[in-house]
Structure formats: C-alpha cells, structure tokens
Amino acid sequence: MLLKRKIYDTLVNWKKENGKSALLIEGARRVGKTTVVKEFAKNEYKSFILIDFSIASDEIKSLFNKYASNLDEFFFLLSAISGVTLYERDSLIIFDEVQLFPEARQLIKHLVYDNRYDYIQTGSLLGLKRNVKDILIPSEERTIKMYPLDFEEFCWALEKEELFAIIKKHFNELKPLKELHSTIMKLFRTYILIGGMPQAVLEYINTNDYNNVDRIKRDILTLYRNDIAKYANGYEHKVLSIFDEIPSQLSKHEKKFTLNSIEKSARFRDYEDAFMWLNEAMITNPCYNATDPNVGLSLYKDRLTLKMYMGDTGLLLSHAFDKESEMSAEISKKIITDKLSINNGMIFENIVAQMLVAKGKKLYFYSRYDKKSSQNTMEIDFLIRDFKNPAKISPIEVKSGKNYTISSLNKFTNKFNNKLGNKYLIHTKDLTIKNNIIYLPVYMTIFL
User: Which one, 308, 345, 414, 447, has the greatest CB density within 10 A?
Assistant: First the structure.
C-alpha cells in the first residue's frame, strides 16, 4: 500500500516548469522521501534512474568527476550502466541520499542548464557543514521540506477523507462539530499515538498491533541515535544528551529547555551547535522566545531561550516511555481514550508545534517574568502571524486538561491588544468563541 502524500502535487507542479530548476527534498530519516519520489517518477515520466548514494558503485560515482565537462558522455555511460534509456524532457534522474556524495549536488548547475532531463535530490542532514564543505551550492536548486504525515494525510490513509472534509467545513464556518467531536478526538488521539512516520502508519493499518508500531518507532529512534554518533563529529555526546532529555524537559510545567539537568555549569553557547544539529536533521522542532510579539518575530528571537519539541509526536511517546518496556496495547488504549495519567501538556504542545511546522511556520513563544509585577508575568505557548491579517500576531495557548485558566492570555491581550489579530485557545473540547477568543479543538490546528 502506498500512502497518499501532499508533496506529490508539489512535484507535479514543479514538473510543469520544464526543467528550470532541480528539486531538493529535505526531511528526517524515514519520513518517506524516496518512496514518494519513486512513485512520482513511475507515474509522470517515460523513464527514470535512481542513484542511491548510500550504495552507489564507484563506477557510477566516478562519472561525476570524470565527465562533468562532457555531459553527452556522462549521460551515455549513466544510461549504459543503469540499463535505462533516457528520453529528452521525459526522464527523471534521482539523486537519493545526495548528502553522501556532494559532488553530485555541485553538478546540478550544469545539468539544469543542459535541460535535457529533470532532477530531484533527496537527503537528510543536508545543512551540515561537512556535507557542503568545498562545494558550491547551485542557485538552480529549489529546496522543499518533507515532514511526517499530517492529520489530513493520516485520515486519507485510514479512508476518512469525508470526515476530514467535515472538519474543514466546520473550521471555515467556525461552527462546533457537536456529536462528531468525540469521534474525531478519538481518531486524533490515535494519530498522536501512531505518529506520522509512514512505516509506523502502514504497520498500524496492516496489523492494528500497537506493539509492532512501537517497535518500528523505536527502530527509528535507534537510527537517529546512530546518525548522531556517526555524523555529529566532536559533539555527539552533547547532541545525544539533548535528544535524550527532550521528554523530561517537555514534561515540566515550565517547558523551556534548561541544561542544568545535563551539566550543572553548562552554558547555552557551548551547546548551540548541538541544538542546531538536531534542528538541521529535522529530528526536532525548536521554539524560540520572541521578546516582542511583533510582525517579524525573528527580529526579536532570543536564541538562548528555547523549547525543544520532537519532529514527530508518535516518536516522542515511544521516546518518553522506558527503553525496556514496550508500549503495550493496554497503555495505547488508555492514551486513545484519555485515561492514562501522563503529562498530556507535553503531548498536545508537541503535536501543535508539529502541525504548525508542517504548515511552514517557524516556532516562537512569549515568556516574561517580572518580580515586581505579576501582571507582567505571562507565558504564551506559540505566536504566529494571523493568517487573515498578516500585519497582526495571533497568540496560541494550548490546554490539555478539562479545567484550565486563561490568565496569561488575558494579560497578554491587555498588554499587546493593538498588535493582535485572532486569539486562539487550543483544547480538547469542541469549537466555541467566547470574549473574542476562538476556542479551537486541537485537530483544527492544521488549518492555522
């Protein structure tokens, strides 16, 4: 079974440009990059060649150095070695795991200018210095990011398209779903538990066995650890320390990442490269404190005050449970029915962060502590541009419990009201609007 992914339509639109650029698809390991590109190649081209640089022969690799200035010979030999006939303007050449062979990426400029064929590159860890050292990044390269399945793609996989269409309609009209809400929340909690890694989703569809799904997620976490040990040269211990600390940091009431649990005298500037590594690997989603909630949030970013969310909430759940104990079907059932006494705040903030990032948003929050005035002490979970009025900022508070207060949101509104557009409180209940605040069920975050 092949999972339907939104990025496929992006690839189709890119193909219509007739080779004006090469595509570079970045994403975390096991997010489904190669699968979707191969399917696209099979469906949309007369032929394609896939070069996987994790297993490519020396014979193939040598072509990029020997024949970079003679593309006629390059294509002739590439076609002969691969056994694939190339058709002008109707063949696709895929450079898979291109970070392992930067010479191929450097040749993209000349290949695009030649314009005989189309080119897609896929890879992880593409931003690391070691993977771009001594090469010229081609301006003819267009980068897009691929993320785990979002909630809509998860609904597609489970053949719930009609249900998702109803959710979208109710969001557009800002109307509650009433009787349907509990059904959708159960489905959404299933999505949180399984996560959006394609292999985990397929295992759930095929077996409905949560233990099998958990094993797959743990295998992916092990893969990430191995990548850290292999590629985070010189500071792998710091990267692993941060990675392993994420669940406990998110389970605190105060979710800002602090280093004293790793090393008492640790300073953020000593760990900055380690945080950046996890971000560039797309394993985590960092969220920075914006000291002024204004348009152009990056101008007010405090890079030393951040929260670290996992890129996939399903992986976070497997990461949070003890290594030796698999997530049993009984535990999984309690998560889905909201009967497990774990920190739901951690889970729901992480899934909101994941959904915002998948929409192309950089993550910011607002935090201020004032010893002299409690009225100036407040924390807002997320800040985004208002999608209806981009000149305004929308504050987002996330509440996982049934009973909660909104004192921070009220104080924030009073202080910055002239800068604010729509104000959102994301919770597990149905949609409602009170006192100019939109109370949004968490599954509707996807539309913000």
Answer: 308
